[in-house]
């Protein structure tokens, strides 16, 4: 079950154009954006905020393959994934390990 709700495309664009995140802490950005379906700030800002809130590096593919896991980790409902679990999120046919 998702904890995210929609604010709608037009509202997300309006928020993005307002540059609301410039007046917020990283914690506030993560708290807001994690629970909104539409991205209302630059992804790089959101990514940095989530890393700060979780206290760890978050790989980009985690946002696509394990978003609910990130939210659960943020809420304290689960532990951070291991490196192997993060790698295992990538489909086997897409993995290239050097």
Please provide a written account of the structure.
By secondary structure, this protein is mostly helical. It has one domain. The protein is 51% helix and 0% strand. It contains 6 helices and no strands. The radius of gyration is 14 Å and the shape is globular. The protein starts with 8 loop residues before the first helix and ends in a 10-residue tail after the last helix. The mean pLDDT is 95.
Topology:
Elements (H helix, E strand, L loop, with lengths): L8 H10 L7 H8 L9 H12 L5 H6 L1 H8 L8 H6 L10
Structural class: mainly alpha
* Radius of gyration, whole Å: 14 Å
Quaternary arrangement of the chains shown? Answer: single chain
Distance between the termini: 36 Å
Q: What overall geometry do the principal axes of the alpha carbons give?
A: globular
List how many beta strands DSSP finds: 0
Number of H- or I-type helical stretches: 6
What helical percentage do the residues reach?
Answer: 40-55%
Q: H/E series, N to C? A: HHHHHH
* Overall number of structural domains: 1
Task: Give average pLDDT, whole number.
Answer: 95
Largest sheet: none
- The low-confidence parts are none
In percent terms, what proportion of residues is strand? under 5%
């Amino acid at each position: 079950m998702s904890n995210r709700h929609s604010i709608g495309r037009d509202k997300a664009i309006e928020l993005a154009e307002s540059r609301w995140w410039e007046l917020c802490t990283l914690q506030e950005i993560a708290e807001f954006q994690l629970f909104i379906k539409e991205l209302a700030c630059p992804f790089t800002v959101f990514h940095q905020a989530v890393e700060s809130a979780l206290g760890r590096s978050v790989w980009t593919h985690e946002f696509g393959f394990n978003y609910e896991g990130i939210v659960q980790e943020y809420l304290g409902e689960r532990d951070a994934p291991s490196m192997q679990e993060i790698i295992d999120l990538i489909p086997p046919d897409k993995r290239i390990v050097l």
